[in-house]
Amino acid sequence: MNTLADSLSRRSVLSGGGALIVSFSLLQPLAAQERGPVQSRSTPPLPGSLNTSPMLDSWIRIDADGITVFTGKAELGQGIKTAAIQVAAEELSVEPRAINLVTADTSRTPNEGYTSGSQSMQDSATAIRHAAAQAREILINAAASRLATSADRLNVRNGVVTTGDGRSIRYGELVANELLHVHAQPQSKLKDPSTFAVIGQPMQRVDIPAKVTGGVAYVQDLRLPGMVHARVVRPPNYGARLRSVGTGQVENMPGVLKVVRDGSFLAVIAEKEYLALRAMDVLALTALWEMPPPKAITVGIPKSATLLAKSLGKVDDAMTTPSTWYCAMSQITSKGSNSVPKLKISGRNLLFWSSIVNLSIISIT
């Protein structure tokens, strides 16, 4: 038996301004990220993202060159760089300037999935704090062995472990034979908040200077050897066909390397981004497009949703209201298309709400 999905192609549905809404949700992967891997009943869960990356040296590495801290979260303006540095510096008993932070490098940092949902501190900073606290205790115990004293007789300040009689040793001198390549523990000897010297104190945001001085702050700031820039001239409507375009003026503009046309695809390549933007605007003015005729899609709408839509005014206008559309489509999904009347919704409105997740069109005619 042929189904609706068998008889329709994506292009045939979308041509002329229609849209196919498919069921799609980020809720399950987001929930899985929040929960982390399933723990056995006998094993207490590790704090934060240690749950998924449990090795201490996945988060903190110390050598003769200094201290490097890793986070799988990206700096998006939420301040995770500054906060992570403060957390690590506090638990390691060092100054913030001693921390070299590496963020969201897929070849180096822990895999923490999405940077979303205000979970950077909850997941990543929690992992960094516990990893730093456990690393500090490992280093103190190593220093106690090297200095022939007990760990409770040692003090740590600015990455230097000191005995009561003045003998000292630096973190970098203690790390050898993969000292921190150990599995994290569920419990950490965290510092008492009343003793905090870094957390809770004012600190200049480390991500701001590059953003306000033209430095490398975002992916679009990258400059690779021989890199050029391109911009695509978009059609005014889905399905529009490019009839003609005048390229002479654009090809003579300074910095323009090439105008690319492949059927209805139109683009320009230039030496610099701003030159590509200017050339794109000029090229768009010379492009003539052939518009496709508008089409409508018939969607089954339950009577209750129809009445609600009519109460808001014209059906087509009412369907641009999120609550109405959700109500209508949810009932379609639960009841099926055989029990509902038909209403026509214009492609414009359908496209507008086609990004709503977990909804499905039942019938298209």
Any overview of this molecule?
Helix content is 33%, strand content 16%. It has 365 residues and is of the alpha+beta class. Strands 1-2-3 form a three-stranded mixed β-sheet. A three-stranded antiparallel β-sheet has the order 4-5-6. Strands 7-10-9 form a three-stranded antiparallel β-sheet, with helices on one face. The protein starts with a helix and ends in a 13-residue tail after the last helix.
Short description:
This protein is 33% helix and 16% strand. The chain has 365 residues and is of the alpha+beta class.
Low-confidence stretches: 1-32, 314-365
Distance between the termini: 18 Å
Number of strand segments = 13
Structural class: alpha+beta
Order of helices and strands: HHHEEHEHEEEHHEEHEEHEEHHHEH
Work out the count of structural domains: 3
CATH fold call of the largest domain: Aldehyde Oxidoreductase, domain 4
Main sheet: strand order? 1-2-3
Query: Proportion of β residues?
Result: 15-25%
Radius of gyration: 30 Å
Major sheet: 3 strands, mixed
Give the CA-based shape: elongated
Provide a count of the helices: 13
CATH class of the largest domain: Alpha Beta
Do you know the CATH architecture of the largest domain? 2-Layer Sandwich
Per CATH, the superfamily of the largest domain is: Aldehyde oxidase/xanthine dehydrogenase, molybdopterin binding domain
Mean pLDDT comes to 79
Percent of residues in helices? 25-40%
